[in-house]
């Protein structure tokens, strides 16, 4: 019978041999999830023996993690902007840089009760965070019914009601105008498919790929977004590492003004924000 510490040590070695980054933290989180405690709680339980009712599911989770199944899928949750969201294979796993987009958006000069659209909402982290932190009514839209169902589950999880869920291919099934549109749309080029990590390849193709240069959907989206914003409304996006210049040009062509592309913490130009005159 293995103790908590022995299990963590053995699992860490297993993950390290399979080149899993941050192997010890991964194993600690898997053990904490199995024992329904926090990672910090494990330090008080290192000598606790684990029987097969705990070890068997841990071995299976460890095997899957070693094969590249994302840790977030195995845990079933991800933390985003101080809240816990459900996450699974129905939608893109939220990335830390998207939290930076939220921080930018929360500084925009919006009306007291703005109308906000989160286009391509996926698991809902962008729109639901804005619904939780503002007096907005937020519309969450996605072409994927599965992703939208996950967003709805997260809305219930957070107890949020100031929102509407709409299944729509871009604006096809949406009505009305908005004060702010946020979007983290698919932006990966098909040519980059083979370079993606095993973890990223578990995200739905629909949430990742958008044509030869990754901009097919964004080219459709930007002029439509311009038409659906109130005068003075804002568009805020997340884009790929090499897309700042072409996206800025698309925004200008569509009629947006004051475009700025903000960098993420790794100095990649990641977040175009522009205004409709």
Could you give the order of strands across the largest sheet?
A: 7-6-5-8-9-11-10
What is the 3D shape?
elongated
| Biggest sheet statistics | 7 strands, mixed
- Look at the structure and give the CATH class of the largest domain: Alpha Beta
- In N-to-C order, the SSE pattern is EHHEHHEEHEHEHEEHHEHEE
Q: How many DSSP E strands?
A: 11
Q: How much strand content do the residues show? A: 15-25%
Features:
single chain; 277 residues; alpha/beta; Rossmann fold; seven-stranded mixed sheet; two-stranded antiparallel ribbon; 21% strand
Explain what you see.
- By secondary structure, this protein is an alpha/beta fold.
- It folds into two domains: 2-67; 90-275, Rossmann fold (3-Layer(aba) Sandwich), CATH 3.40.50.150.
- Helix content is 39%, strand content 21%.
- It has helices at 4-17, 23-35, 52-66, 71-75, 96-105, 125-133, 145-158, 205-208, 216-227, 244-254; strands at 2-3, 49-50, 77-80, 83-86, 115-119, 137-142, 163-167, 178-183, 229-237, 257-263, 269-275.
- Strands 7-6-5-8-9-11-10 form a seven-stranded mixed β-sheet, with helices on both faces.
- Strand 6 (137-142), helix 7 and strand 7 form a beta-alpha-beta unit.
- Helix 9 runs parallel beside helix 10 (244-254).
Q: How would you summarize what this structure contains?
A:
The chain has 277 residues and is of the alpha/beta class. 39% of the residues lie in helices and 21% in strands. The model has no long low-confidence stretch (mean pLDDT 96).
């Amino acid at each position: 019978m293995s103790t908590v510490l022995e299990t963590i040590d053995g699992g860490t070695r297993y993950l390290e041999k399979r080149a899993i980054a941050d192997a010890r933290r991964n194993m600690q989180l898997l053990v904490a999830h199995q024992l329904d405690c926090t990672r910090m709680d494990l330090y008080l339980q290192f000598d606790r023996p684990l029987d097969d009712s705990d070890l068997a599911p841990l071995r299976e989770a460890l095997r899957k993690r070693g094969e590249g199944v994302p840790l977030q899928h195995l845990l079933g949750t991800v933390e985003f902007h101080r809240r816990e969201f459900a996450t699974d294979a129905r939608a893109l796993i939220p990335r830390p840089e998207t939290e930076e987009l939220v921080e930018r958006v929360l500084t925009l000069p919006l009306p007291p009760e703005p109308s906000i659209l989160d286009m391509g909402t996926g698991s809902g982290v962008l729109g639901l965070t804005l619904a939780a932190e503002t007096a907005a009514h937020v519309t969450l839209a996605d072409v994927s019914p599965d992703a939208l169902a996950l967003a709805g589950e997260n809305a219930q999880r957070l107890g949020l009601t100031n929102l509407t869920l709409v299944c729509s291919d871009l604006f096809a099934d949406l009505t009305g105008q908005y004060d702010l549109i946020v979007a983290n749309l698919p932006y990966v080029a098909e040519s980059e498919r083979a370079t993606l990590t095993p973890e990223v390849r578990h995200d739905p193709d629909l949430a990742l790929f958008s044509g030869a240069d990754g901009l097919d959907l964004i080219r459709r989206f930007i002029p439509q977004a311009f038409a659906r914003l109130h005068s003075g409304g804002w568009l805020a996006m997340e884009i790929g590492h090499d897309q700042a210049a072409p996206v800025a040009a698309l925004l200008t062509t569509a009629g947006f003004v004051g475009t700025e592309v903000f960098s993420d913490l790794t100095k990649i130009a990641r977040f175009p924000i522009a205004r409709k005159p």
